[in-house]
């Protein structure tokens, strides 16, 4: 009686493992070598097997990057749909966020020494539209507004420099150099 119960439990366990083998795509790259070992079809390495496919997944991931990627199309789909949702989800833009984005664009123009006309270029507009469509449609200023913002930034920065120079109590030495670019433009 006890041996028939053990036989039934062992038979049930084998059926569960067989069903799991059918449901996991990892078995496309492995075959049973013995009751407690599986063999990789790609490199013939034998792994210990105790009913779980974790070691096989890990082997494919570490030793056969391509095989692991082929084996796991579900993860790829999951990430794609998440990325699709991110790209297609309309992004809200409050006036405060719009001001921060406009300031960031102005700082990019100043830092990277980009021409103000860049904000009117189609590629720039397409990029902004991709990042935040609502900002593009409702808040993105034109070149004239950025010109005004640039002039204000210049005035504020100029005042800060003047205040810093006034705060100097000792000697101050300034040097300047003029150079000409290949396009024969003079720079100070």
Jot down its keywords:
2 domains; mainly alpha; elongated; 188 residues; two-stranded antiparallel sheet; three-stranded antiparallel sheet; 60% helix
The end-to-end span amounts to 100 Å
Q: What number of structural domains do the residues give?
A: 2
What is the H/E order?
HEEEHHHHHHHEE
Counting DSSP H or I runs of 4 or more residues, the number of helices is 8
Our Rg estimate from Cα atoms comes to: 33 Å
Largest sheet: 3 strands, antiparallel
What percentage of amino acids are in beta strands? 5-15%
Arithmetic mean of pLDDT: 81
Largest sheet: spatial strand order: 1-2-3
| Secondary structure: helix percent | 55-70%
**Parts with pLDDT < 50 across at least 5 consecutive residues:** 67-79
Compute the number of strand runs: 5
Helices and strands: which structural class?
Answer: mainly alpha
**Global outline:** elongated
Overall description:
It comes from Nothobranchius kuhntae (Beira killifish). It is found in: Nucleus. It is a single chain. By secondary structure, the chain is mainly α. The protein has 2 domains: 74 residues; 93 residues. 60% of the residues lie in helices and 9% in strands. It is built from 8 helices and 5 strands. Strands 1-2-3 form a 3-stranded antiparallel sheet, with no helix packed on it. A two-stranded antiparallel sheet has the order 4-5. Helix 2 packs across helix 3. The longest helix has 24 residues. The protein is elongated. It starts with a helix and ends with a strand. About 7% of the residues have low confidence.
């Amino acid at each position: 009686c006890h041996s028939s119960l053990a036989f039934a439990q062992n038979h049930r366990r084998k059926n569960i493992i067989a069903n799991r083998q059918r449901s996991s795509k990892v078995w496309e790259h492995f075959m049973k070598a013995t009751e407690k070992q599986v063999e990789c079809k790609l490199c013939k390495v034998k792994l210990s097997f105790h009913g779980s496919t974790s070691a096989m997944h890990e082997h494919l991931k570490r030793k056969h990057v391509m095989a692991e990627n082929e084996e796991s199309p579900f993860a790829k789909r999951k990430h794609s749909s998440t990325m699709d949702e991110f790209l297609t989800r309309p992004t809200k833009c409050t006036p405060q966020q719009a001001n921060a984005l406009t300031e960031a664009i102005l700082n990019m123009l100043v830092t990277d020494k980009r021409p103000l006309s860049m904000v009117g270029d189609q590629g720039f507009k397409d990029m902004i539209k991709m990042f935040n469509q609502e900002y593009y449609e409702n808040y993105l200023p034109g070149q004239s507004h950025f010109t005004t913002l640039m002039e204000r930034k210049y005035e504020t920065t100029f005042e800060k420099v003047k205040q810093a120079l006034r705060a100097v109590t000792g000697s101050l030495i300034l040097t300047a150099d003029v150079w000409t670019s290949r396009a024969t433009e003079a720079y100070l």
